[in-house]
Amino acid sequence: MVNQLDSKLSLYHFYTAFIALLIGGSFGLLQTLVRSESITLPVELNYYQVLTAHGVLLALVFTTFFIFGFLYAGVSKTTGSFTNRRRKAAWIGYLLMTIGTITAVILILANQATVLYTFYAPLQAHPFFYIALALIIIGTYFASYALIAQYNGWRKENKGSKSPLFAFMTVATLVLWIIATVGVVLAVVLQFIPWSLGWSETINVALSRTLFWYFGHPLVYFWLLPAYMAWYIMVPKIIGGKIFSDSLARLAFLLFILFSIPVGFHHQLLEPGISEGWKFVQVILTFAVILPSLMTAFAMFATFEITGREKGATRLFGWVKKLPWKDVRFLAPFIGMLFFIPAGTGGIINASHQMNQVIHNTIWVTGHFHITIGATVILTFFGISYWIIPHLKGRVLTNRLNSLGIYQTVLWTVGMSIMSAAMHFSGLSGNPRRTQETSYSGHEVAASWGSYELAMAVGGTLLLFSIFLFIGIIINLAFFAPKGQEEFPIGESMREEKMPKLLENWKLWIGIAIVLILFAYTIPVIDIIQHSPPGSPGYKFW
Ligand code: HAS
Questions:
Q1: Tell me: the pLDDT tens digits for 181-210?
Q2: Which residues, in sequence order, are bridge partners of residue 493?
Q3: pLDDT tens per residue across span 336-378
Q4: Would you tell me which CATH number, out of the four given (1.20.210.10, 3.20.20.370, 2.40.440.10, 1.10.1790.10), belongs to the domain 12-438+445-540?
Q5: Which of 55, 292, 301, 365 has the smallest C-beta neighbourhood within 10 Å, fewest atoms?
Q6: Which of 365, 378, 381, when mutated, tests ligand 1's pocket best, judged by the most ligand atoms within 8 Å of its CB?
Q7: Atom 34 in ligand 1: residue holding the nearest Cα
Q8: Ligand 1 atom 1: the closest Cα is on which residue?
Q9: Closest Cα partner for 35 from 472, 456, 485?
Q10: Per the confidence metrics, is the pTM higher than 0.70?
C-alpha cells in the first residue's frame, strides 16, 4: 500500500489533471467543429483562444499533473513513504503549479494570452501569462527536489544495492526535465517577461524559438517516459510475466537523457537564421534518439513472447492469444504501443530533413502529435488510472468498471484513428495547421479538404464522449467502487542481473549530455545573437 499522506498528494495531482483533461478536451472538439464549418464560435471566443486553451490544458497541464501524481505514488511505493520535509516540498510544488495554471487559464479566457501553447514571439501575451508559466516550472522544481531527495535517501540507506527501477527511471525523467527547462526559463525570464512588461521594445524571435525548442523536444520525452515506465515495469506484471531486462530498461532511459535535448532544430528545419550544417548535426542526433524507442519495442516484444510461451503458446504468433485482452489495465497501454508504430514512423519522416519540407506547418504534424501524446501516451495514462486510483483510494476495479474501461479505450481508439488519419492524409496535400482558414489558394482546394475536416469533427466527437466516460469511471473508482485492495503492479526482472555500476553514475551521464548540448547549440546560438538583422524585431537579445 502507498502511505495515506502520499496517496493524498498523488490524488490531488490526478484530480487536477482530470479536470484539465475535461476542459481541454472540450475545447479540442470546438476546434474541429469550427474548422469543419459545423459551428461558428460566439463573439466572446475566437478560434486561436480556444486553440491556446486546448494546447495549454492538455499538452502542458494535464500531462504535468498526471506525471507527478504517478511519480509520487510509484516512488512512495518502491522506496517507502516520503519524509515530512520532502512531502512539504511536494505540496509547495503542487500549490505553485496550481496557482500558475489558474492564472494562465484566466488570462487565456480573457483573450489576454492568445499565443498558442508554444507562445512564439512576436505574438505577445499579458506579462502575468509568462509569470504564470514560470510559477508552473518553479513548482516542478520543488516536486523534483522531493522525488530526487527520496531516491538519494533510499540509496544512502541501502548502500551497494541496486535502486528500485521505478525510482531510477523517475530520476532519469527528472534529470531530462530539469536540463530541458533551462531553455524555456531563459526565454521566459530574459526575453518574454521584460518584453511584455515594456522594458525592452524588441525581442529576438529566432533566439526565443530556439530556446523554446531546446525545451520543446525533450518535453515530448518527459511525456513519453512515464508511459515507458508503465510498459517496462507494470505491463509485464499485469500480463503475468516478468521484466525482460532491468539493465536494458535503465540504459534506454539514460540514452534519452543524452539524445533528447540537442535535437530541437528538427522543429526549425524551415527557419532561416540557422545554418544547414547545424541543422544536419541535429538531424543526425534525432536519429540517435530513435534508438531507445527501438530498444523499448524490442523489450516489449520479448516480454510478450516469452510470457506467452511460458503459458503454453506454440507457433510463431501463438503468444498473441495468451495476452489478457479483456483486462483494461493491459489493453489500453497495449493499443498505445500499437499507435506508436505509425507514430514513430511519422516522427522519422518529420525528422528527415527533405521530407520535413512537405509536412511542416501542415495538419500532418497535428496528426503526428495526436497519435504520440494523444494516443500512445494518453492511452497508457488511462490504463494506469484504472488501477492507480482505486489503489490509492482503497477500492477495487470491478468487472463492470473494467468492461466500461474497455469501451472507453475502444471509443478513444476509433475516434483517434479517424481524426488522426484525416489529419495525416489532408496534411500531405498541404492542409495547414493552426488556422481556421483551411484554404490558402481558393475554394476548390478547401472543398477537397472539407470531407477530411468533417472526419476530424466526427473523430473529435468520439474522443470527447470517451473523455466523459473516462471521468465517469474515475468518479466511480474514487468514490463508489467497493472497498478493497487493488494491486499496484510492480514487475520483477526475468533474471538476476548484476547492474553495471556505470549505469547509476549520474555525474557521468549528465556530463556527457551537457557536452552534447554545448556541441550542438553553442555556435548556432552565437550566430543567431550576432547576425539578427539590425532594426528587425530579432535584433536585440531581449
Ligand atoms: Fe514528434 C513534432 C520527430 C516522437 C510529439 N512531435 C512534434 C510535435 C509534438 C510531437 C507535440 O523531426 C509538434 C510540435 C509543434 O507544436 O510544432 N517525434 C519525432 C521523432 C520521434 C518523435 C523522430 N513526438 C514524439 C513523441 C511525442 C511527439 C513520443 C509525444 C509524446 N516530431 C518530430 C519532428 C517534428 C515533431 C521532426 C517537427 C515537425 C515539424 O516540421 O513541425 C521519435 O521519438 C519516434 C521514435 C519512435 C519509434 C517507435 C517505436 C515503437 C514502439 C512500439 C512497439 C509496439 C509494441 C506492440 C511492442 C521508433 C516502442 C506490438 C505488438 C504486437 C503484437 C504487434
A1: 999 999 999 999 999 999 988 899 999 999
A2: 243
A3: 999 999 999 999 999 998 999 999 999 999 999 999 999 999 9
A4: 1.20.210.10
A5: 301
A6: 365
A7: 350
A8: 347
A9: 456
A10: yes
